[in-house]
Amino acid sequence: MAKATGDVVGGGGIFPTEGLDPKTYELVKMYVSSAAKGKGLGKLLLNRCIEEAKNAGHKMMYIETMPELTTAVEMYKKNGFTFIPGSLGNNGHSGCGVFMIREL
Questions:
Q1: What pLDDT was estimated at residue 5?
Q2: Alpha-carbon dihedral 34, 44, 49, 10, rounded to 10 degrees
């Protein structure tokens, strides 16, 4: 969670999603409010999640997102994520159409 002037403006986390390789964490529920976009907060949150996954001994990070979230998809690409053809694991999501992974 990130705060600016007492307001929550973003958050995200990592999770060992069922069905993923045990050395892979999923980046889940990463959001940045409209008021905080364009200030580097998304990258800060992403880097923190990557570091936490590394510290936990994980080797890969997986994410699902939606194609209309073009800014987020571009940020993931700039930070080493690559597209994969389909979903991994059993996270129960069905509305995402973009699947990406990155070595840690």
A1: 65
A2: -20
DSSP character string of 42-70: HHHHHHHHHHHHHHTT--EEEEEE-TT-H
Angle at 101 between CA 63 and CA 77, to 5 degrees: 90
CA angle, 40 as apex, 37 and 46 as ends, to 5°?
105
- Ordered by where they begin, the domains of the chain are 2-103 (3.40.630.30)
pLDDT digits (tens, 9 = 90+) for 10-65: 898 999 999 999 999 999 988 888 888 888 888 999 999 999 999 999 999 999 99
Place of tokens 């999770």: 15
pLDDT of residue 80: 97
